[in-house]
Amino acid sequence: MRQTINDIHTIRLTEQMYNVELFQPGDTTVTELSEEGITTYYTEYKSRKKHDVVKTPVDRKEMTAFFKEVYKFIRNADESSTPIDDCSYKLTLYYNSYHKEILEGDTSCGDEYLLGKIYRFVEAHRKQ
User: Fold this and answer.
1) Contact by Cβ (8 Å): 82, 102
2) What is the b/e burial string over 82-109, where b = at least 16 CB atoms within 10 angstroms of the residue's CB?
């Protein structure tokens, strides 16, 4: 893939749960989308060790098309929000080795939400 500022080459979505009883962060679930496919895993609080790593291959052309769709979605977004819940979301878009964009919470364009769009893409490929 070309290395330009407009071409996403990796998307990393983190969902960090909070332990309300202990008033501290809990496990973090990570979903990474790249040209090689989809990788999901979780890490425990204060640990970098990856647990339950699941890799799903996705056709490179399909992934590139999805990245372009996400880029267009973000540029046309009309609202951004941070849900108040027992978890937080952070979406990091890597364009090349020296440029990334970080979105916290959720972004919407009309009635569609970016987190839902990504989760639907992942689920569609996991069921194949």
Assistant:
1) no
2) eeeeeebbebebbbeeeeeeebeebbbb
Residue 118, classed as helix, strand or coil, is: helix
Q: DSSP code of 85? A: S
Q: Is the pLDDT at 125 greater than 60, yes or no?
A: yes
What 3 state SS string does 44-75 have? CCCCCCCEEEEEECCCHHHHHHHHHHHHHHHH
Tens-place pLDDT, residues 57-115: 999 999 999 999 999 988 888 877 766 667 788 889 998 777 888 888 788 888 888 99
Contacts of 4 (CB under 8 A, 6+ apart): 95, 96
* pTM of the entire predicted model: 0.84
Dist CA 44 CA 57 (whole Å): 25
